[in-house]
Write a structure and sequence with these properties.
Radius of gyration: 16 Å
Shape: globular
Helix content: under 10%
Number of helices: 1
Strand content: 35-45%
Number of strands: 11
Largest sheet: 11 strands, mixed
Structural class: mainly beta
Number of domains: 1
Distance between the termini: 27 Å
Order of helices and strands: EEEEEEEEEHEE
């Protein structure tokens, strides 16, 4: 398989990198396109924050991220996804705490999602501690991506939520 690094459709906030079998090397890794990102706030339940360059998590805010897997080579199977990781940049930590990653299980759009219309969420797929600003955090999302490859209609992206932390994820070039 040839090396494939895809440009993100917006300024780089994060990357979703897939390593495909039989070898997990840069030669067969793909950076998948971010197609949507938005925060929602329970304090402003009918306001869309899809145009903001930052994503807020915690203190009543949740962040949503969508990825386009159609750029994978035709015929790619879940068994060929050896590893998938999601990397985010934590710009500011107002309150340290744990952040939960869960799949969105219903449709949403960056230009219209609000707290009132936010998608439902599935079972927790990962957790990280946000304790210091200025760091990249990488989460293993292999199982999620394998499920999306098997059943593309279930790819509604992921949500980052927190009941304890209050932080800002920043888009980095």
């Amino acid at each position: 398989m040839q090396e494939r690094f895809l440009e993100l459709s917006r300024v780089r906030l994060l990357s979703l990198v897939l390593a495909t079998l039989p070898f997990s090397t840069a030669a067969n890794a793909a950076q998948i396109t971010l197609t949507g990102d938005a925060s929602v706030s329970t304090a402003r339940p009918s306001t869309n924050f899809g145009t903001l360059s930052n994503l807020y998590v915690g203190n009543g805010n949740s962040a949503f991220l969508q990825f386009d897997l159609s750029t994978l080579p035709a015929g790619t199977t879940s068994a060929q996804i050896a590893r998938a990781t999601l990397t985010v940049f934590v710009n500011r930590v107002n309150t340290a705490g744990s952040v939960t990653l869960a799949p969105a299980t219903s449709a949403w759009s960056e230009s219209s999602v609000t707290s009132t219309s936010a998608p439902t969420l599935g079972t927790t797929a990962g957790i990280f501690m946000a304790s210091a600003p200025g760091q990249y955090v990488t989460l293993d999302v292999t199982t999620l991506v394998q499920n999306w490859v098997t059943t593309p209609a279930t790819n509604f992206g992921v949500a980052l939520t927190s009941d304890s932390a209050n932080l800002l994820l920043e888009q980095r070039k």
